[in-house]
Design goal:
The protein is of the alpha/beta class. Among the domains are: about 150 residues, no CATH class; about 150 residues, Rossmann fold (3-Layer(aba) Sandwich), CATH 3.40.50.300; about 180 residues, Winged helix-like DNA-binding domain superfamily/Winged helix DNA-binding domain (Arc Repressor Mutant, subunit A, Orthogonal Bundle); about 130 residues, Ribonuclease Inhibitor (Leucine-rich repeat, LRR (right-handed beta-alpha superhelix)). Helix content is about 35%, strand content about 15%. It is built from 28 helices and 29 strands. It has a 19-stranded mixed sheet that branches. Strands 2-3-4-1-5 form a five-stranded parallel sheet. Strands 6-8-7 form a three-stranded antiparallel sheet. Strand 18, helix 25 and strand 19 form a beta-alpha-beta unit. Helix 2 packs parallel to helix 5. One of its GO terms (biological process) is defense response to other organism. This is NB-ARC domain, LRR domain containing protein. Keywords: Nucleotide-binding, Plant defense, Repeat. GO terms for molecular function: ADP binding.
């Protein structure tokens, strides 16, 4: 645990010595080096102390020693940050003339000398304190830890990184070992049960698989076909009934007005809406016995449509309270029998072995390990993930098992699962511990985009680049390692976008570690207290009283805002900036923030600024002072123009301004214009992400500057015109690391000729072209790594599919107004990896031809409107892997033919989910399931 605070401090001192030689006097440099060396000497003793602490072998005096060392480390960080803060402020005061010029001025020179001497004096004091701490530590019997210990290991950089999507028990349906029969029974109870509403409560201890089972059933194909209305509500311990009701409203009837006025009004709205529908609603992780007695009044119980409610809880009393009628039932999930536990353990621990089989010499040990897990699938998966990273030798496994045994010797019954999960944490190498702990900063059940995690970890200095990899690539390896250990699970969209989460039980373990380490302070309405030595602060629900809690000086380096109800006023933000002047991370995502004050420019240490989904309209010019800023995210805010001072941020890596397209309305070019950039942007040579930015008409010079950005991996440009195409192609040819490219013209009639791009970026994974092409650029067919392709308003005159069908990794294809011919032909053997195909707004198409052997892996097909197509092509029957079919704005004749008992139904009867999309009023789409009479009635009336 101590390593999580000591290693970053050592590296901060090293960074000061290497990158700031001009601002260190000779004597100061000597003191800094001495301090760095002393900390490195102490570090191995810390590893030994950490091991003994986890086993309960460390006395109170030694624990106090660890606390004192932590205080020394924090003091080092404070002193260095304070010095760099004042020095940056001093340097900024004298403008762009440079430091060497400014110090020649008498005042500036004297002030700079004082700063240096202050640093020297404070470092000397810290060195003296450290010597005393070191002497005390040696008296506690601590020894230098063996370099082979788990905490000093690094990830094997020579090992191939396995795709994390093969990952977790809690996501992959194929790995729901032991739940098939229970799941089948539960599905049957939902579908074949009584016509009145019934409540099914799933009861079991943490880690037994309640949420996993409920998710599996909730998403089951037959359940989706049978019910009309769905809602999944995560309740948790600190729920707010009003928020639960509004969450239900947003899932069940999102098109109704947002603010009803009172909880009674929301309940009445829900009752009226649900009265006419067959619904299934899941309340996951219920802790309060009063919850059901309140929430049930929002759910009609006697509409005789066979409505179902699922409750998951650890508390038997809660389940019994919800067991109101003879039709309700309580299912107790029992621990898994040895044979199922064995199957799960082998799948996880030996996933790289042939058929996941256990080597004979490890079988007895494996069964002993499994016996310690008490049949809890979450624990089995976590422990198996731990052993999967060990050498497959009997000696190594016995060593690890000995430590695991100690956990059980302390508590033979071991009802507290977190003890075992804590062991998985203790086994993490130090460089993974902080990354893992970071998940607790987010609310329970949060799903986080992987790129956001990487950028946050880097801003926190958790990640260090290696000679052959960027920090982002190293961060990806770290996350992959956590996934392989079954501590983090993945959610994947389209095979492209990747998000991750931790199980709620693991989240609880992390919060327990927060108490020990003061890694992050969580503040909410029920927890209005603040520990001044916490480096991170997560503010939930309200900001009332927060400024008083923080006090006049805070060591806080990172602040997150989640689900804030009250407005973040300008005075609050300015005061916060003054009190927390050493901030490195500031995350306002989805917070009620209207203005970013100019005082943000005083946060010289700031590396990460997230304004996504705020109401901010302007970025102050003082942003140019933030020389350490790495990430600026204004996505889905109201920012349309970035100040030219952005060009001063030479360390900026990620500039995000992309507006995400809504699938509820028809996309219009003028609704998504991007953020405006200015001449000089080319000097930001560290940029890896530039998305999505607006280029003024005919700014060839601005496009030409892009060729300097050789590190770009993500590029999104809007407002492009025909005149810049050739220059754009030249710039793109020099971006050898580009992985995502998004290009949009000023309007749908503008032609963007990209044929002159002779050598496209070789590692492109995602390409979106929103422009008129007329002919598909020849180079697209050469993109061997391409996984996703979008073509909007292309108006291609020939069947472009023959040029795309052999792309070996294409998993996602979207074509909107992309083709003006009368038919699309998917030839035999084409699109072997495609999983999702979207075809919209192609008015001339009347034929969709699919040959045998085409699209063998296709899971989702969405198309329409095709006004000339009168019936569903019979070739759809050849898509045997199809799981979802979405049909948009097709004729009434087309829809009627597909209904059950109608002539065309046989063509789609193999598809589990068939959905129709229609706009009857305004721009909002409504969805209807196959076989529902209300759609035919609406079509008849329209």
């Amino acid at each position: 645990m101590a390593e999580t605070f000591l290693t970053p401090v050592i590296e901060k001192l090293l960074d000061l010595l290497i990158t700031q030689p001009m601002i260190l006097l000779k004597g100061v440099r000597k003191e800094v080096k001495s301090l760095k060396d002393e900390l490195k000497i102490i570090q191995p003793f810390l590893i030994d102390a950490e091991k003994k602490l986890s086993k309960g072998e460390l006395g109170d005096a030694a624990k106090e020693w660890l606390k004192q060392l932590k205080e020394v480390a924090e003091r080092v960080e404070d002193v260095v940050d304070e010095y760099l803060y004042h020095f940056a402020k001093h340097d900024h005061h004298y403008g762009d003339r440079g430091f060497l010029t400014s110090i020649r001025r008498a005042g500036g020179y004297v002030r700079s000398l004082k700063l240096r001497h202050d640093l020297a004096s404070q470092i000397q004091d810290i060195n003296k304190s450290l010597q005393k701490v070191k002497e005390r530590g040696q008296s506690y019997g601590l020894r230098s830890s063996d370099e082979g210990s788990s905490s000093s290991r690094r990830i094997n950089t020579n090992a191939s990184v396995i795709d994390p999507r093969l990952g977790s028990l809690f996501v992959n349906k194929n790995e729901l070992v032991g739940m098939d029969s229970i799941s089948t029974e539960l599905v049957k109870s939902l579908i074949d049960g009584p016509s009145t509403r019934s409540v099914i409560s799933l009861v079991g201890e943490g880690g037994i698989g309640k949420t996993t089972l409920a998710r599996n059933v909730y998403n089951a194909e037959y359940v989706r076909q049978h019910f009309e209305c769905f809602a999944w509500i995560t309740v948790s311990q600190s729920y707010d009934l009003e928020k639960v009701l509004y969450t239900m409203k947003n899932q069940i009837c999102p098109m109704k007005e947002e603010h009803i006025g009172s909880m009674e009004g929301v309940m009445d709205l829900l009752r009226k809406h649900l009265q006419t529908m067959r619904y299934v609603i899941v309340f996951d992780d219920v802790w309060d016995s009063e919850f059901w007695s309140c929430i049930k009044h929002a759910l009609p119980s006697y509409n005789n449509k066979g409505d179902r409610v699922i409750i998951t809880t650890r508390n038997t009393r809660i389940a019994n309270d919800a067991n109101d009628t003879p039709f309700d039932q309580v299912q107790f999930l029992k621990t898994w029998p040895p044979e199922l536990a064995w199957e799960l353990f082998c799948r996880k621990a030996f996933r790289f072995e042939f058929e996941a089989s256990c080597p004979q010499e490890l079988e007895q040990l494996s069964r002993e390990i499994i016996s310690k897990c008490h049949g809890l699938p979450l624990v089995i998966a976590a422990v198996a993930g731990l052993f999967s990273k060990k050498q497959k030798s009997k000696l190594e496994w016995e060593r690890v098992l000995d430590n695991l045994n100690y956990e059980f010797e302390k508590n033979p019954k071991l009802t507290n699962v977190s003890k075992i999960l804590s062991f998985s944490y203790d086994d993490l190498p130090y460089h993974l511990k902080s990354c893992f702990l970071y998940f607790g900063s987010f609310p329970q059940d949060s799903i986080i985009f992987e790129n956001k995690l990487y950028r946050l970890w880097i801003a926190e200095d958790f990640i260090k680049s290696r000679r052959d990899k960027t920090e982002e690539q190293v961060a990806e390896e770290y996350l992959t390692e956590l996934i392989h250990r079954n501590l983090v699970s993945f959610v994947v969209e389209n095979g492209i976008k990747r998000r991750c989460r931790v199980h709620d039980l693991i989240h609880d373990v992390i919060l327990t570690k927060y108490e020990e380490l003061c890694f992050c302070q969580i503040i909410n309405q029920s927890k209005l207290r603040f520990k001044g030595d916490c480096l991170r602060l997560a503010i939930n629900n309200t900001t009332k009283g927060v400024l008083n809690l923080i006090g006049d000086y805070s060591k806080t380096r990172s602040i997150f805002f989640f689900d804030i109800d009250d407005e973040l006023t300008e005075s609050f933000i300015i005061t916060l900036f003054r009190k927390c002047k050493f901030l490195k991370v500031l995350d306002f995502e989805d917070a009620p923030l209207d203005k970013l004050p100019k005082e943000v420019g005083n946060l010289f240490n700031l590396k990460y600024l997230n304004l996504r989904m705020t109401n901010v309209k302007l970025i102050p010019k003082s942003i140019g002072n933030l020389q350490n800023l790495q990430t600026l995210n204004v996505t889905k805010s109201f920012v349309q123009d970035l100040p030219i001072e952005i060009n001063k941020l030479r360390n900026l890596r990620h500039l995000l301004g992309r507006t995400i397209i809504s699938y509820e309305i028809d996309y219009r070019f003028d609704l998504d214009i991007g953020v405006k950039i200015h001449k000089g942007i080319g000097c930001l040579e560290e940029l890896q992400t530039l998305s999505s930015v607006r280029v003024s008409s005919s700014r060839v010079d601005l496009v030409k500057e892009l060729e300097k950005m050789r590190k770009l991996k993500i590029l999104g440009m809007k407002h492009l015109t025909a005149g810049i195409a050739e220059t754009l192609c030249v710039s793109l040819e020099k971006m050898s690391q580009l992985e995502t490219l998004y290009l949009q013209t000023i309007n749908e009639d503008e032609i963007l000729d990209l044929k002159s791009l002779s050598s496209p970026p070789p590692f492109l994974r995602y390409l979106a072209l929103m422009c008129q092409l007329q002919q598909l650029p020849h180079w697209i067919s050469k993109l061997q790594h391409l996984q996703g392709l979008e073509l909007w308003s292309s108006r291609l005159t020939n069947d472009s599919l023959k040029h795309l069908k052999h792309l070996p990794n294409l998993a996602f294809l979207k074509m909107v107004e992309a083709y003006i011919g009368d038919g699309l032909h998917f030839e035999e053997g084409g699109f072997k990896r495609l999983k999702e195909l979207i075809l919209h707004n192609m008015e001339d198409i009347n034929v969709l031809k699919i040959e045998t052997g085409a699209l063998p892996l296709l899971e989702k097909l969405a198309f329409g409107p095709f006004p000339l197509m009168r019936e569903m092509p019979s070739d759809i029957k050849l898509l045997t892997n199809l799981k979802s079919l979405e049909i948009r704005d097709m004729s009434r004749e087309f829809v009627v033919d597909l209904q059950p008992n109608c002539p065309g139904y046989w063509k789609i009867d193999h598809v589990p989910s068939v959905i129709f999309w229609y706009k009857f009023k305004g721009n909002i789409y409504e969805t209807y399931k196959l076989g529902k009479s209300n759609l035919l009635e609406r079509l008849q009336a329209s």
